[in-house]
Amino acid sequence: MGALQELEDVWHEAKADAQFQLELAGHRHAFVGRPTPLYAATRLGEHFGGAHIHLKREDLCHTGAHKLNNAVGQALLAMRMSKKRVIAETGAGQHGVAVATVAARFGLECAVYMGTEDMRRQSMNVRRMRLLGAEVREVTSGSKTLKDATSEAIRDWVTNVGTTHYIIGSVVGPHPYPELVRDLQRVIGDEAREQYLFADGKLPDAVVACVGGGSNAIGMFTAFLDDKDVLLVGVEAAGAGIKSGKHAASLVAGRPGVLHGAFSYLLQDGDGQVLPTHSISAGLDYPGVGPEHSFLRETERVEYVAVTDKEAIAAFKLCTRLEGIMPALEPAHALHHAGVLARQFGPGGRILLCLSGRGDKDMDSVEGS
Amino acid sequence: MRLDSAVRAHGDLKLIAYMMAGHPNRKRSLEVGKKLAASGIAALEIGIPHSDPLADGPVIQKAGQVALDHGMTVGASLELAAAVAREGTPVVLMTYINPILAHDPRRFAAEAAQAGVAGVIVPDMPVEESEPVASWLRAAALDTIYMVAPTTTPARMASICERSTGFVYCVTLTGITGARKELPPGLDELFKGVRKHTELPIAAGFGISRPEHMKALRGAADAAVVGSAVVAEIDAGKDPTRLVKDLLKACR
Questions:
Q1: What ipTM was reported for this prediction?
Q2: What is the 3-state secondary structure (H, E, C) of A42-65?
Q3: Least Cα separation, residue A359 to chain B (angstroms)
Q4: Domain span at residue B75?
Q5: Is B79 on the interface with A (CB under 8 A)?
Q6: pLDDT tens readout for residues B30-50
Q7: Which of A128, A146, A273, A356 is the most buried (most CB within 10 A)?
Q8: Among residues 95-114 of chain B, which lie with CB inside 8 Å of chain A?
Q9: Domain of B123: which CATH number?
Q10: How many CB pairs under 8 A join A and B?
Q11: Which residues of chain B have pLDDT under 70?
Q12: pLDDT digits 0-9 by tens, A236-245
């Protein structure tokens, strides 16, 4: 609790510190590559019946996903707290790569926890992290995926809390993490809203993003929460189908519970044991979800749906062929639902989608499917 | 006997053993529980298995997983606790907040009290977030034991000591459960800090496994909690009361 309190205090202080904000803005510009472009996916739009689909290109961030936005900010906070070691959990490996990258950039020691199952699925990212100088620690407990990697990272943190900052990768975990990660990711939506208004003169009809823990979605949605006419849709992983039980759709099919220090929707059995999850995308393969998403679900400000492995793979291939953009499997879930909405809206419908990362890491999963 | 009297030292060090309900299976854990209860320990902690035991090291994690794989439930754990509590040694349940929430905290408290359980430890329930669960435990006359760690700030220590009943659990190290060779330095300071805030007995836990640890703690803490070392014996198919006897010798 002491470390969480310290983190909350340091973050509030840093947020109000113009010097810190200037430094963060500098790294975002020159290191992360922000602002990322807003791209009109015209051929996808035509394919789906004439809607206008825009992609917020977080796949063009350095290291290939939105995860670096958060990692850069938290690395600066770690240094502000004089902590010389950072640790992280990772599922798809994108957050692990982002943390290994900032550790290299700022000269911090780095360990990344990753389930053996995910190490197999995402071997390229394991190699990247190691080349960046991070130690990748295998997690063999439980389901050997993101949930268990998160538990191991928390265990490391409580053991080495004096010297180590835990850079959590999504809007999950104990307070202040969900708020901190949202604040660092909201740059996505802040930029996208401005870019959209500039390009189109008005706001989109719908904004769509995929939700595992939910950091890119919160980052995107936060800027639009007060725009009551904009439909916000979070897309979870339905895996082999909700009815099969093999999925990771916490908000669609879970009920409230506590995991990793947050009270939120959770996939669990009647006895409060957390259930194994399944998704073809390692980044969505998490039984919990950020508590703010649970709030947005209950207040009905955001609609949450789930998309299957098969649908995501088809969307992956479609976007690659029609736009020359290979999306990660995570936002491919959102792409599928953007297609559903496009057909509903018909010609002239206007959809903004967060393309949270690029798909090179998913080549094996897609070709093997 | 009331939990606080049972674990308070009188020139000696009291011993609290830990076991996991349903490990290695239901039948054997019931036998082990009864044996441990009659082995001369001051209290027995019974873990209710959880899929995500954040505060536990590999030995207890594995025991919990084995118990869950054998179909252990919260309900069956409470039944086991009831059978063991009948032996007369105070039983303390240790589990995580989510199984309690899923079981319904009010029902959990009532059933635990019905089972003759003396107290409950929930490592992932910070004192700041303990309501309304703590109210149900209190209403059922169950002691609620909170944990103090070396990193706990003085202000939090005061509020933890104020809300704890039965005893205060001093986590001796920053980290997770599991046997260590040596006790960390600075423990006396930690105990002194806690005693400033409370008259309750202090139990030291995490990393404690050897007779020499008992000797070091005697005169400083009231009780020592030995978990992973006991669970490792059970896991190896051995009789854990042999270890308990060796430890008890060093307590006097």
A1: 0.93
A2: HHHHHHCCCCEEEEEEHHHCHHHE
A3: 31
A4: 3-142+209-251
A5: no
A6: 999 999 999 999 999 999 999
A7: A146
A8: 96-103
A9: 3.20.20.70
A10: 76
A11: none
A12: 999 999 999 9
